[in-house]
Design goal:
With 108 residues, this protein is mainly alpha-helical. The protein has helices at residues 10-15, 27-104.
Length: 108
Amino acid sequence: MYSDKIYLTPQEILDKEFKIDARGYRPQEVDKYLDMVIRDYTEFINIIKKNEREIKDLREDNAKLKAEIRSLREQLVTSESNSDTSFNNVDLLRRISQLEKVVFGRIE
């Protein structure tokens, strides 16, 4: 993901050789500083890999939860349509019963 934007790896930093000049920096100080840079690079790479794994896991969880929501919505719609049908059947039976009472003269 980030590898195309990072130019140096910790190993490349470690292997870098500088030319020594009469007025150059102290090699021990440069080496000490580069060791710190290498540790930072290594830690950054570990953090990036950890975050990428976490993102992958969260995306998988998100997909599973979306599928579960879709399934539950379908169950809810099915349940509501079934309860509406049974309610309508009961309502129709009551109406038929009342009509029979009126038609056949059995008003209670």
